[in-house]
Amino acid sequence: MKTEVVIVGGGPSGLLLSQLLNRAGVDTIVLERASRDHVLSRIRAGVLESGTVEMLRAAGVGARMERDGMEHEGCYLTDDDLMVRINFHELTGKSVMIYGQTEVTADLYAAQDAMGTTILHGVEDVAIHDVTSSAPYVEFTQGGARQRIDCAYVAGCDGFHGVSRQTIPADKRREFERVYPFGWLGLLSRTPPASDEIVYANSTHGFALVSMRSPSLSRYYVQVPLTDKVEDWSDDRFWEELSRRLPQQVAQDMVTGPSIEKSIAPLRSFVSEPLRWGSLFLVGDAAHIVPPTGAKGLNLAVSDVFYLHQALIDALKRNDMSGVEAYSDRALARIWKAMRFSWQMTAMLHRFEGEDDFAPQMRKATMLHLAQSETARRDLAENYIGLPF
Ligand code: RFL
Ligand code: PHB
Questions:
Q1: Ligand 2, atom 2: nearest CA belongs to which residue?
Q2: I need a surface site. Which of 135, 142, 230, 262 has the fewest CB within 10 A?
């Protein structure tokens, strides 16, 4: 086989890149290890920055999001019973969209089907070859047969555990990592959300989050020790712990119900540099991970795709290599700012096991400062709604 760009990974990064490139007349093949149903069943992000919303519209996949997404003009941060509203709209003129990653992915698959692009599922043992030569190629196994695709470029959109990052020689890579000593236990339930806006709750019992997917579908999280297993958490235990951590005026409106999904995700900050190795580019979770506290994971994947799709179109259609050469530095500059924000939000809102008495006082003081200073709220809002691309 032959194509212009092989895209390894059919998650949100890979699908959006394929969508944008094909619309510009660039030929791609997406290689995805899992089945489409599996990709669509992973419950993950829920908050889209305004720049992400614009990108999805520009990619021609905005219609269902416009109809079913929920535009939020603010969110709450709380410390025990103190609630601080961050009014994004007033502070920045912008808002965020609540629309699940599963829906974004479903819209992208539908658009790709309509365009007739090539997405191969169930591929195994992807190997990326000769990306520092003028003739790169990718091999993989599908249905027991080894296959080869010759191409001009390879986009590594295969997530944190993918093969793309490992293709860059270890002595040419630099990795930066911070692992947090807790995880998030998430629960999805067919109940009306306890708040009409997202609530990031800091409490003496640890962090909790109120989020949603629709007016009748709630998504909640509680901070848990890394040693906890999902089986340790009955639905009853989850609801009890959640209401202990939320301000009384939020907890009192909470409607409980059976869980549809429950899972634990560890929290980590991770960046691998550079993002380019010859004709191979790393995109999204393949290159970086943020703790979910700032809602930046999916949004960063989209900004990487923004820089890369322009770079590849310029290279393939206009023979202009400037975007390809600048990709790593341009994307990393934005990535590190989102890393900082996600790390800061995580430190501001979580209880760290074994911490001293000073730490909760710092969190409380940060929250009081936010309550009293419009400058502090504007800074948070500007980062939350998303820094410019
Ligand atoms: P993805 O979504 O991981 O997609 C990568 C795709 O590549 C496939 N793949 C391979 N395909 C072929 N060959 C291989 N060797 C392959 N290895 C992997 C995988 O099957 C998969 O389909 O990365 P992408 O596209 O960069 O998208 C990034 C986002 O998914 C991610 O940043 C966010 O979901 C992060 N994230 C969250 N972000 C938020 O903003 N808010 C959240 O609440 C939130 N919750 C989460 C999350 C990530 C989680 N993970 C990765 C464990 C919760 C979880 C559990
Ligand atoms: C979610 O709705 O899943 C969600 C919302 C905000 C976050 C993280 C996750 O910061």
A1: 46
A2: 135
